[in-house]
Write a structure and sequence with these properties.
This protein has seven helices and twelve strands. It has helices spanning about 5-15, 30-45, 70-75, 90-95, 130-145, 165-170, 170-180; strands spanning about 20-25, 50-55, 80, 110-115, 185-190, 205-210, 215-225, 230-235, 250-255, 260-265, 265-270, 275-280. The radius of gyration is 20 Å and the shape is globular.
Length: about 280
C-alpha cells in the first residue's frame, strides 16, 4: 500500500509509462472515497492517461453487500464486484453472479469488474484430447465477460497460448459487444423484464442481455450445468430498444459460428454442458 507516499508513487509509475494501476484495500485506514479520490487527482495530474482500478475500496465490492456509492463512477474506471477469481468453472460462475443487478451502474469509462479472465487457465486450460469441451467452456467464459461489459484482461500467458485460446480472446465480434453501450452494461434478463419466460435458471440455462446501439441487442444464454440443456428464447422478453421486435422477427447472428438465422418470436435452444449461445439480434 502506498499510503502517505501516493504522490511519489504516482509520479514514478507515470515515468514508467504504465497503463493501469489497481489500488487494493489492504490495511487502508481512511474512507474509500477519500483514498480513491486522491489517487484520481494524482493520476490525472501525471500527464499520462492511466486506468484506475479499484479493488475492494467501497463500490459494493464485498460480494454486493452494502449500498451503491455514486462517487464510484465519477472517480474510478473499474471496481471489483467479487472475491479473487480462480481457474475453475465454480469460481467463474460465482464471480459472474456478483454482476446480477449491477448492469445499471456500468457505463463508458466506469465498469463493474468480476476480476481477470481465466480463459486458458486451470480448468479452462487447452487440451487437444477434449478440444470441443474446452472450446465450449472458454467461449462461455469470454462471452459472459463480453455481454456484461466487464474488463477483458487476459489472465493466461499470451506468449505461449494455443491458437484456439488466442482466437477466443481476439474474436472481434465478441469484443465489439463488450465495447458498445446503450444504457445498460448487461444483466440477467429478469432485471429487464421480471416476468420473462426465457431461460433464467441459476442451475441450468440462464439468459443475459445487453442493449446495443441502433436497435440491436446482445444475448448470451449460458448453460451453467454439466448436462445438456434445452430451452426457448422468447423475443417478447427482450428490451423494447430492439427495433425488430415490432415485427416479431429478427436476424440472430451467432457470434461464435458466424451464422445468421431469422428468428420469428421464439428460438429453440439446445446447449452442451458448460457452453453458451452468444447472439447479436437486430433487423
Amino acid at each position: 500500500m502506498s499510503e502517505g507516499y501516493e504522490q511519489q508513487d504516482a509520479t514514478l509509475f507515470a515515468s514508467w509509462k504504465i497503463d493501469m494501476i489497481k489500488i487494493d484495500a489492504c490495511a487502508t485506514h481512511e474512507p474509500a472515497e477519500l483514498l480513491m479520490g486522491r489517487w484520481r487527482k494524482l493520476l490525472n495530474a501525471s500527464g499520462r492517461p492511466i486506468l484506475l482500478s479499484d479493488c475492494h475500496n467501497g463500490c459494493m465490492s464485498e460480494e454486493g453487500r452494502g449500498l451503491w456509492e455514486s462517487w464510484c463512477t465519477l472517480t474510478v474506471n473499474m471496481w471489483r464486484s467479487s472475491v479473487d477469481i480462480r481457474g475453475t468453472w465454480e469460481s467463474f460462475l460465482h464471480n459472474l453472479d456478483t454482476l446480477k443487478g449491477r448492469g445499471k451502474y456500468g457505463g463508458p469509462g466506469a465498469w463493474n469488474d468480476p476480476d481477470i479472465l481465466e480463459v486458458g487457465v486451470g480448468e479452462f486450460g487447452w487440451s487437444e484430447v477434449d478440444s470441443e469441451v474446452k472450446n465450449d467452456k472458454n467461449r462461455a467464459h469470454f462471452s459472459m465477460w463480453a455481454v456484461t461489459s466487464s474488463p477483458l484482461l487476459a489472465g493466461n500467458d499470451v506468449r505461449n497460448a494455443p491458437a484456439a485460446i488466442t482466437a477466443i480472446l481476439t474474436n472481434k465480434q465478441a469484443i465489439a459487444v463488450n465495447q458498445l453501450y446503450a444504457g445498460n452494461a448487461g444483466d440477467v434478463i429478469t432485471f429487464f423484464n421480471a416476468s420473462a419466460v426465457s431461460p433464467s435458471d441459476p442451475t441450468g440455462l440462464e439468459t443475459w442481455v445487453k442493449p446495443l446501439p441502433n436497435g440491436t441487442v446482445a444475448i448470451a444464454v449460458l448453460n451453467r450445468s454439466s448436462k445438456t440443456q434445452s430451452g426457448v428464447l422468447d423475443l417478447r422478453d427482450l428490451p423494447n430498444e430492439l427495433s425488430c421486435l415490432l415485427l416479431l422477427s429478427c436476424n440472430a447472428h451467432r457470434i461464435w459460428s458466424g451464422q445468421t438465422v431469422r428468428v420469428s418470436q421464439t428460438m429453440k435452444l439446445s446447449l452442451s454442458p458448460q457452453s453458451v449461445e452468444f447472439l447479436r439480434l437486430g433487423p
